[in-house]
């Protein structure tokens, strides 16, 4: 059962293969910390709403299923947002509007439509977690390079030695801006396609 | 496919919405004290930071009650004890950045001549560029600057591009952040709103 759910991590990755959720992947990856929190938030929302929709799947009238899905998703997003603001205030400030925008993240609605509506609750839960993790992996990789090359830090700890700066090394300011994230995601998709083709 | 009657659909969505809104209201209300406390602590931390204290957020509320007394009812001015032991007036500043509001606190000496320190925050300035206004290096450049020029005219502390020819004396200006012209301008405008007494 586990094996059939591994797709989102690689061959069905929501960001790299299905190019979903790119907007937030560009916006919150200037540093590792917000990227990890964003990945966790999306995973929680995706898993929980998959689970609930799957539980309700036989009672939902098909004509209003999108409305029901949106309700459930926004319920969990608001929940996550409130908890972040209460518990990790600094990071909720960094993520600001992007937590709210999880509601419109295509990965979540996509999994609800494509999986949760036609599968049992437990596999749906696993599917949600795996898609969240698949999305999170890309975020973490992008954020790793952006923070390292853009700010010379990782998880807010300086990693580029002072002596490099003394010898003229400069942080690449472009890395901090969203366009560079797009290029990084593009490069990852390129590598991914190249590896898939060779197989 | 199963057929659902209109009555069922209406009932279904009504109940669902009721459940969801009730739960969210309960969560919202029960977390509100913690959220408010976070915001309050952050504000106090910023005021204390402007006064030169480096205090952890979790201890900010307690420290603030020992170090500051409100001067106005709206919470925009406080009398604070600075890190060097002298007293100062902390005042709230509001302004516009490139993408959204910026705000902060400035602490002036009791004779209203010297800036003891500042602290800025922003809603959505670009990380690495405009967001640098919250960094220690930028904030430190304000410490000890004068609010009045040689002739006693109020000029506040201007934020200007380094090297620009200007008749503003060194003691009345700090360097703008390169790459963040508009955010720096916003800070410049905001600094002009310091009460001129």
Description:
The complex is a heterodimer of chains A (199) and B (197). Chain A has 199 residues and is mainly alpha-helical. Chain A has one domain (12-198). Helices cover 66% and strands 2% of the residues of chain A. A two-stranded antiparallel ribbon of chain A has the order 1-2. In chain A, α3 (65-87) packs across α6. Chain B has 197 residues and is of the alpha+beta class. Chain B has a domain at 81-194. Chain B has helices at 6-50, 57-67, 136-140, 181-192, and strands at 68-70, 77-81, 87-96, 101-109, 115-122, 158-160, 173-175. In chain B, strands 1-2-3-4-5 form a five-stranded antiparallel β-sheet. In chain B, β3 (87-96) and β4 form a beta hairpin. The longest helix of chain B has 45 residues, at 6-50. The termini of chain B are far apart.
Relevant terms:
heterodimer; A: 199 residues; B: 197 residues; alpha+beta; two-stranded parallel sheet; 7 strands
């Amino acid at each position: 059962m586990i094996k059939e759910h591994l797709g989102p991590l690689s061959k069905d990755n929501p960001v790299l293969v299905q190019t979903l959720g790119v907007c937030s992947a560009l916006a919150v990856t200037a540093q590792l910390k917000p990227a990890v929190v964003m990945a966790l938030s999306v995973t929680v929302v995706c898993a929980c709403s998959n689970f609930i929709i799957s539980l309700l799947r036989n009672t939902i009238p098909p004509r209003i299923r999108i409305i029901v899905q949106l309700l459930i998703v926004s319920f969990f997003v608001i929940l996550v947002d409130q908890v972040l603001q209460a518990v990790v205030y600094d990071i909720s400030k960094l993520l600001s509007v992007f937590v709210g925008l999880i509601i419109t993240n295509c990965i979540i609605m996509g999994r609800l439509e494509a999986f949760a509506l036609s599968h049992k609750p437990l596999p749906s839960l696993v599917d949600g977690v795996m898609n969240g993790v698949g999305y999170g992996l890309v975020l973490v990789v992008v954020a790793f390079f952006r923070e390292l090359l853009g700010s010379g830090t990782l998880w807010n700890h300086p990693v580029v030695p002072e002596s490099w700066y003394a010898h003229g090394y400069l942080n690449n300011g472009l890395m901090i801006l969203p366009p560079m994230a797009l290029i990084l995601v593009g490069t990852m998709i390129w590598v991914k396609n190249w590896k898939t083709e060779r197989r | 496919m199963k057929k659902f009657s209109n009555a069922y659909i209406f009932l279904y969505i009504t109940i669902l919405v009721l459940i969801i809104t009730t739960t969210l209201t309960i969560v919202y209300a029960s977390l509100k004290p913690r959220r408010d406390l976070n915001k309050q602590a952050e504000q106090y931390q910023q005021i204390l930071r402007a006064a030169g204290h480096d205090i952890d957020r979790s201890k900010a509320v307690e420290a603030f009650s020992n170090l500051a007394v409100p001067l106005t009812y709206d919470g925009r001015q406080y009398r604070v004890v600075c890190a060097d032991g002298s007293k100062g007036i902390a005042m709230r500043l509001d302004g516009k950045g490139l993408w959204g509001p910026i705000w902060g606190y400035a602490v002036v000496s009791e004779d209203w001549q010297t800036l003891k320190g500042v602290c800025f925050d922003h809603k959505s300035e670009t990380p690495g560029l405009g967001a640098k206004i919250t960094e220690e290096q930028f904030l430190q450049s304000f410490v000890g600057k004068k609010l009045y020029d040689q002739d006693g005219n109020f000029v506040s502390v201007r934020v200007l591009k380094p090297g620009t020819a200007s008749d503003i004396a060194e003691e009345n200006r700090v360097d703008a952040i390169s790459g963040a012209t508009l955010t720096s301008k916003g800070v410049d405008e905001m600094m002009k709103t310091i009460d001129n007494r």
